[in-house]
Design a protein that fits this description.
Elements: E1 3-15, E2 18-29, H1 33-39, H2 51-58, E3 63-64, E4 90-91, H3 95-104, H4 108-131, H5 138-153, E5 157-158, E6 163-166, E7 191-196, E8 198-199, E9 207-212, H6 219-238, H7 245-263, H8 270-275, H9 279-282, E10 327-330, E11 333-335, H10 338-345, H11 348-351, H12 356-360, E12 367-369, E13 372-376, E14 381-383, H13 391-411
Parallel strand pairs: 3-4
Antiparallel strand pairs: 1-2, 5-8, 6-7, 7-9, 10-13, 11-12, 13-14
Length: 416
């Protein structure tokens, strides 16, 4: 049996203020290559220490190593290296685009894992919606989400740093970072925009729920929320193989402009608004991105697919045509971001469409984002995410959660 030595330290009290350190040797099993061969269903398995000798025996004409840029994140994959690699002819350019393309289209087994990550993450979001109360900290909701994913789903990691924005923080697209670590107190009247996703065996999920902290949408909150939901549903209805992803972004953008006009924030002809890119003021990010082993997965811009250099569209993380087996997020949003609003108000081409008096009512509103994960099928799409989405569903679900909490408190003798 192969063995390895582990070193353990412990403290033993001998006399007052006198401790000694004892070194304990024990042996732990290392599985043989056959174990990993069976586990991963591969033809051969060897220890890493043997890599140079094993490869030399195979006399390869070339070794392909994985090095390339994720066109979404800009991250560079870490290229493999080992002692003795200099004796081989190594090519680090061929493999990355091929592997990236393989990752774009998911296998049935991969889809099963992604369904699982979405199921657990969806349930975790629902737990947060039931538990949220005015006066809590944003990070309490983050903690509850992570706890549920780990205890109920074995998901040790999240796919990304949780975004738990309440009030004005809901208009900060990547809130929750070290400089603003989900530390605001949730206030009565706040909208909560919680963007959180658990990860299982490296496969991610990416879900955003927006809901009122007190369980009831105001009229303005409802109007903006339903505008975003309408855009989301329009895209879902249109998704199918062959559809251009930039066209899906344009569709969501148009729905937003139509709805903002109906609300009264905008005025005029929507076609003319599109020409001056007014939609990017309210949704400065792209509609969605490829999802898989990275939350923003590789393959967004392969050779021959060019980024569109226009407001909003330039932020799209892929400009591909959809194919069966792709997994993407659909995440339209409407945000009231102060510096973008000021920018639009100072631009005559855009300000002529803005009803300043109505817009004033939405200053400090924050934002709404609705984000679901979908898989493209042969005829349309499969919705992987399962959370309350309509205003009626959200309010009913949160009311039920609050009712159960009150019942529990009464049974335990606690005061409301």
């Amino acid at each position: 049996m192969s063995r390895r030595i582990q070193l353990f330290c412990c403290r033993v009290e001998k006399k007052p203020r006198d401790t000694v350190l004892i070194l304990v040797l024990c042996f732990a099993r290392i599985h043989p290559p056959e174990f990993f061969k069976n586990k991963y269903a591969v033809d051969e398995a060897h220890y890493v220490t043997e890599i140079s000798n094993v490869l030399a025996l195979k006399k390869p004409a070339v070794l392909l190593t994985l090095r390339g840029v994720n066109t979404d994140s800009g991250n560079v994959s870490k290229e493999a290296s080992f002692e003795g690699i200099s004796q081989f002819n190594v090519n680090n350019k061929i493999l990355h685009p091929e592997i990236a393309e393989c990752r774009v289209i998911k296998t049935d087994m991969e889809l099963e894992v992604l369904r699982y990550t979405n199921k657990i993450s969806s349930e975790a979001h629902k737990e947060v919606m039931k538990a949220v109360k005015v006066g809590m900290k944003e990070y309490e909701m983050e903690s509850l989400f992570q706890h549920y994913c780990y205890t109920r789903g074995g998901m040790r990691h999240t796919s990304y740093t949780c975004i738990c924005g309440s009030g004005e923080n809901s208009s900060v697209l990547h809130y929750g970072h070290a400089g603003a670590p989900n530390d605001k107190t949730i206030e009565d009247g706040d909208l909560c925009l919680f963007d959180m996703g658990g990860e299982y065996y490296c496969y991610g999920s990416d879900i955003t729920c927006t809901f009122p902290a007190n369980g009831k949408f105001t009229a303005d909150q409802r109007a903006v929320y339903e505008a975003v939901l309408k855009a989301s549903r329009a895209v879902m209805k249109a998704v199918k193989p062959g559809v251009s992803w930039p066209d899906m972004h344009r569709l969501a953008d148009r729905v937003h402009l139509e709805e903002l006009t109906r609300i009264g924030i905008l005025k005029g002809n929507v076609d003319d608004m599109v020409k001056v890119h007014l939609g990017a003021i309210f949704m400065p990010h792209g509609l969605g991105h490829l999802l898989g082993i990275d939350v923003h997965d590789v393959g967004g811009y392969p050779e021959g697919v060019e980024r569109i250099d226009e407001p909003g569209l330039r932020s799209l993380r892929t400009a591909r045509r959809l194919q069966q087996g792709m997994v993407l997020t659909i995440e339209p949003g409407i945000y009231f971001i102060e510096h973008l609003l000021e920018q639009a108000l100072q631009d005559p081409a855009q300000s002529c469409f803005i009803n300043s008096s109505v817009l004033q009512r939405f200053r400090g509103f924050g934002g709404v984002r609705i984000e679901d994960d979908i898989a493209v099928t042969a005829t349309g799409m499969e919705l992987l995410t399962c959370v309350p989405r309509t205003v009626e569903e959200i309010e009913a679900f949160m009311a039920e959660g609050q009712s159960r909490a009150k019942s529990f408190d009464c049974l335990s003798g606690q005061k409301q």
